[in-house]
Design a protein that fits this description.
The protein is α/β, with parallel strands linked by helices. The protein is built from 15 helices and 16 strands. The strands form five sheets. It has a seven-stranded mixed sheet with strand order 2-10-9-6-5-3-4, with helices on both faces. A three-stranded antiparallel sheet has the order 13-14-16. Helix 1 packs antiparallel against helix 8, helix 2 packs parallel to helix 8 and helix 9 packs parallel to helix 14. The relative contact order is 0.17. It binds pyridoxal-5'-phosphate. Pyridoxal-5'-phosphate binds next to helix 3 and helix 4.
Amino acid sequence: MKNLKDLAIFGGDPMFDTPLHVGRPNIPDRKLLLDRINDILDRRWLTNNGPYVREFEKKIAEFTGARHCICMCNGTVALEIAIRAAGLTGEVIVPSFTFIATAHALQWQEITPVFCDIDPKTHNLDPDCVEKLITPRTTGIIGVHLWGRPCNVERLQEIARGRGLKLLFDAAHAFGCSCKGRMVGNFGNAEVFSFHATKFLNSFEGGAIVTNDDELAGKIRLMKNFGFAGLDRVIYIGTNGKMNEISAAAGLTGLEGIDEVVTANRRNYRQYRRQLGGLPGFGIMAYNEKERCNYQYVVIVIDERTVGISRDDLVRILREENVLARRYFFPGAHKMEPYRSYFPNAGILLPETERLAGQIISLPTGTSVDKEDITKVCELIKFMAANGKKISRMLAAVGPS
Ligand SMILES: Cc1ncc(COP(=O)(O)O)c(C=O)c1O
């Protein structure tokens, strides 16, 4: 790219003919998956704790080293059930800088999500802020291992233990990640994974609760199956959280190919780092490579004053080029309904959340993105960085999108 007029937003051809997505699903070994689906059809056991669900649960428990894994139809229902089974009520402390499902899983059960600020270095709950938000109504804390980078689990466990609170983790991003050598899945009272299509490991739709607590696991198993404790015996209020057999087969097949996904993600992440590292105003979020990481997200933090273009304009230009970058998790859960109306002043206590939500871009990665794609995306970003102020002036003339 040599000329500003070559940018698609100013009338040039888009850099990519087809869109480059942030989280295009990873497809497992087709033959193996189709064989398993045929097996399911032959057996006519489609759901209700079938053999593939049980095998998937066993493999996840082995993989994480946790005692129990209970698979679910999706991560949101898994969160709702974990919250209910752990006995949370009243107020629960959560980050606002997360996908909305973390807060919704509480509010859905009329539990108040109390939004807590994040540590700008980790993008995860700031334990000092958590302590300040505890009231007599607080029953628990839900940490989110954002981007697969684990929370400060030690401090959160200390706080929860000291104050008699339950501690759950929304580990939707963190399957396959470790913290101080221990796999995610072993922290707090329970941890929740999402196996949504866009996640590191997918089962089309799906999720799981992983825990080392036998009693809690028993309760969760009943709750996800309407509370049935026997054929005609219901002992709790329950819901339908069951994973079906095809999802379990997809998850199992994906799990068997997980090393290839890590390899592709790590290669992409390192290439972005090599090509964009040191570019003023573009901070690439780093993984701690001494731990196990899934490298599922390539996140850059934009310093608008240095770059000369706002984060939103950068995203707009990238999208015109068919690079479908995302502003995860803009604008923060506290600025979405119903929380925006319930807590109009929540932002006062969330300065880091609000700052980061305005600075972040998530870039395309995954097994469908190759070296050449990333080289082109990085060239585009470098071009924008070199011409920031000029581009901003031209954009002002184009007007808002
Ligand atoms: C942090 C976080 N929590 C919860 C969820 C909800 O998971 P699911 O889509 O499987 O319901 C997601 C993603 O979808 C997520 O990113």
